[in-house]
């Protein structure tokens, strides 16, 4: 089996953004793969752009990082000029500007989510070609295929913060179960008028879905309770 | 008030010993010689009015517009040298367009006024450029509500409840200060601005004038537009009546 360790780092990925009554919840898995090899099993795909706007990255790890870095820089200047925090709409449009104008060279799908005092919590999806779509919920990455129907049924308007976060964790965990290119832990970021909260859900603590196996204790752990010291003979 | 800046007033890049730049002050005088321009911020929008002094009876009424739309949600009224004003309006339109194409949202009025002010100021920094001989009142309605800014030839820009430039600016300011702007709607504001302009028009010195008015308010769907003809006529009639009542005293 060819691991293809020279393949560019890609984030197979499941990324999600969901609005609720008062803000947004962003969620993502944590697997970065180089071909079949998991280059980073605990990556953080939810990146800060400003105090009140974050972006979920998918696709090429390098492309998405560079785009985020540029937009963070532009937004910083914009905030200084305006004298107040940038809006989520403006952040999304700056990402769109880079994604559309460099569409031939970039391969990254992004979800921008945040809160501003004019519009409240907003989610903008910016897929491969560089369109911007404002949505009540958005999903992206290879794992998103498994979530379209799930969200159509499960998302409701005016959820509470707790309901929204549970929905996001459930969704990412469902996608991880089905998508080989998504895995690891579930990270969430909640953004509202009060600020930003980051949460972490370890992979082995997630709910098991249909036909998934319980984690087994390895026989090696049980049989050799106190083994020899590694370097001793 | 007139002081001769002998020797220190030949270039905009020269300060006088008492720290003044005379060329900028002379530019302001050009503005002071033009017809009055008034702008007020009412509780639901902005109203702007211009006293257009008619140079010739052969001119078509309604031509030579002094109030221009800079974007859907903002407009500018110009006082001073008309050709200079055209340049400033063109620049404002271009800034508004470019902001929207980069940031995907209508330009905030504060940002637009800062960009226009910095452009006007630019022309006071080089000896091979002369300052703009016009002042501008910028009215707009954005996410933060209605706002009114005034940009002077020096490049200064401030935000106002009520502003006036041109010949009758002192008299206009006195009248504006008498108004209770925070309780006034734009419909009432249109009448008041018309009354103010008619009142400070000097029949002796200047012959005829045409009243041009625009507004941005809830009624105009937050878009900058000419005041509707029927309301304008109503305003003119009310203004003339108010004048007659005054004269009758």
Automatic annotation (TrEMBL), chain A:
Keyword tags? Cytoplasm, Hydrolase, Nucleus, Protease, Proteasome, Threonine protease, Zymogen
Q: Where is this chain's protein located in or outside the cell?
A: Cytoplasm; Nucleus
List the record's Gene Ontology CC terms alphabetically. Answer: cytoplasm; nucleus; proteasome core complex, beta-subunit complex
Q: InterPro entries recorded for this chain?
A: Ntn_hydrolases_N (IPR029055), Pept_T1A_subB (IPR000243), Proteasome_bsu_CS (IPR016050), Proteasome_sua/b (IPR001353), Proteasome_suB-type (IPR023333)
Annotated catalysed reactions:
Cleavage of peptide bonds with very broad specificity
Active-site residue list: 13
Q: Which residues form a coiled coil?
A: none
Q: Which GO terms of type biological process are on file?
A: proteolysis
Q: Name one Pfam family in it.
A: Proteasome
Molecular function terms from GO: threonine-type endopeptidase activity
Keyword Cytoplasm (UniProt): yes
Q: How does it assemble?
A: Component of the 20S core complex of the 26S proteasome. The 26S proteasome is composed of a core protease (CP), known as the 20S proteasome, capped at one or both ends by the 19S regulatory particle (RP/PA700). The 20S proteasome core is composed of 28 subunits that are arranged in four stacked rings, resulting in a barrel-shaped structure. The two end rings are each formed by seven alpha subunits, and the two central rings are each formed by seven beta subunits. The catalytic chamber with the active sites is on the inside of the barrel. Component of the proteasome complex.
- Protein role: The proteasome is a multicatalytic proteinase complex which is characterized by its ability to cleave peptides with Arg, Phe, Tyr, Leu, and Glu adjacent to the leaving group at neutral or slightly basic pH. The proteasome has an ATP-dependent proteolytic activity.
UniProt similarity note: Belongs to the peptidase T1B family.
Q: What is this protein called?
A: Proteasome subunit beta
Q: What is the native source organism of this protein?
A: Eruca vesicaria subsp. sativa
Tell me the lineage of the source organism: Eukaryota, Viridiplantae, Streptophyta, Embryophyta, Tracheophyta
Automatic annotation (TrEMBL), chain B:
Q: Name one Pfam family in it.
A: Proteasome
Localization, UniProt: Cytoplasm; Nucleus
Which InterPro entries does the entry link to? Ntn_hydrolases_N (IPR029055), Proteasome_alpha (IPR050115), Proteasome_alpha-type (IPR023332), Proteasome_asu_N (IPR000426), Proteasome_sua/b (IPR001353)
Q: Does the keyword Nucleus apply?
A: yes
- The Proteasome alpha-type subunits domain covers 8-30
Keywords associated with the record: Cytoplasm, Nucleus, Proteasome
Q: Taking the first listed entry, what is the main subcellular location of this protein, grouped into a coarse class? A: cytoplasm
Q: Has UniProt tagged this entry with the keyword Transcription regulation?
A: no
Tell me which GO cellular component terms the UniProt record holds: cytoplasm; nucleus; proteasome core complex, alpha-subunit complex
Q: This protein's superkingdom?
A: Eukaryota
Please explain the role this protein plays, according to its UniProt record.
The proteasome is a multicatalytic proteinase complex which is characterized by its ability to cleave peptides with Arg, Phe, Tyr, Leu, and Glu adjacent to the leaving group at neutral or slightly basic pH. The proteasome has an ATP-dependent proteolytic activity.
Similarity comment: family membership:
Belongs to the peptidase T1A family.
The record's note on quaternary structure and interaction partners says: Component of the 20S core complex of the 26S proteasome. The 26S proteasome is composed of a core protease (CP), known as the 20S proteasome, capped at one or both ends by the 19S regulatory particle (RP/PA700). The 20S proteasome core is composed of 28 subunits that are arranged in four stacked rings, resulting in a barrel-shaped structure. The two end rings are each formed by seven alpha subunits, and the two central rings are each formed by seven beta subunits. The catalytic chamber with the active sites is on the inside of the barrel.
* Protein name listed in UniProt: Proteasome subunit alpha type
Q: Which organism is it from?
A: Eruca vesicaria subsp. sativa (Garden rocket)
């Amino acid at each position: 089996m060819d691991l293809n360790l020279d393949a560019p780092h890609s984030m197979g990925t499941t990324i999600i953004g969901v609005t609720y009554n008062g803000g947004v919840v962003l969620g993502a898995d944590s697997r970065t793969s180089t071909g079949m090899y998991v280059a980073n099993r605990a990556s953080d795909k939810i990146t800060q752009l400003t105090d009140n706007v974050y972006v979920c990255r998918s696709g090429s790890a390098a492309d998405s990082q560079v785009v985020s870095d540029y937009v963070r820089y532009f937004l910083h200047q914009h905030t200084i000029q305006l004298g107040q925090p940038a809006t989520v709409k403006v952040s999304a449009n700056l990402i769109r500007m880079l994604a559309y104008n460099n569409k031939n060279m970039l391969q990254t799908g992004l979800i921008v989510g945040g809160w501003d005092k004019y519009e409240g919590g907003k989610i903008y999806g910016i897929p491969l070609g560089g369109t911007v779509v404002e949505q009540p919920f958005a999903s992206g990455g290879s794992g998103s295929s498994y979530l379209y129907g799930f969200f159509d049924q499960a998302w409701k308007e005016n959820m509470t913060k707790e309901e929204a976060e549970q929905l996001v964790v459930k969704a990412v965990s469902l996608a991880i179960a089905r998508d080989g290119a998504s895995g690891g832990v579930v990270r969430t970021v909640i953004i509202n008028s009060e600020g930003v909260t980051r949460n972490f859900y370890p992979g082995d603590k997630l709910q098991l879905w249909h036909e998934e196996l319980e984690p087994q204790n390895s026989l090696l752990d049980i049989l050799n309770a106190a083994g020899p010291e590694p370097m001793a003979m | 008030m007139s002081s001769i800046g002998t020797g220190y007033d030949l270039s905009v890049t020269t300060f006088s010993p008492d720290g003044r730049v005379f060329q900028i002050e002379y530019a302001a005088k050009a503005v002071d010689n033009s017809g009055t321009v008034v702008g007020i911020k009412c509780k639901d929008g902005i109203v702007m009015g211009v006293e257009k002094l008619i140079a010739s009876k052969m001119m078509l009424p309604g031509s030579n517009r002094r109030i221009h739309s800079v974007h859907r949600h903002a407009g500018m009224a110009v006082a001073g040298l008309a050709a200079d004003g055209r340049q400033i309006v063109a620049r404002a339109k271009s800034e508004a367009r470019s902001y929207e194409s980069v940031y995907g949202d209508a330009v905030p009025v504060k940002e637009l006024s800062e960009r226009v002010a910095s452009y006007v100021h630019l022309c006071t920094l080089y000896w091979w450029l002369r300052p703009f001989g016009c002042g501008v009142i910028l009215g707009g309605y954005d996410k933060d509500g209605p706002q009114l800014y005034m940009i002077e030839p020096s490049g200064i820009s401030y935000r106002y409840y009520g502003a006036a430039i041109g010949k009758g600016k002192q008299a206009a300011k006195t009248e504006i200060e008498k108004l209770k702007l925070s309780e006034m709607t734009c419909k009432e504001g249109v009448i008041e601005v018309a009354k103010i302009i008619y009142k400070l028009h000097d029949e002796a010195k200047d012959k005829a004038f045409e009243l041009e008015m625009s507004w941005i308010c809830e009624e105009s769907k937050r878009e900058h537009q000419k005041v509707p003809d029927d309301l304008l006529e109503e305003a003119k009639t009310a203004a003339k009546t108010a004048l007659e009542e005054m004269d009758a005293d």
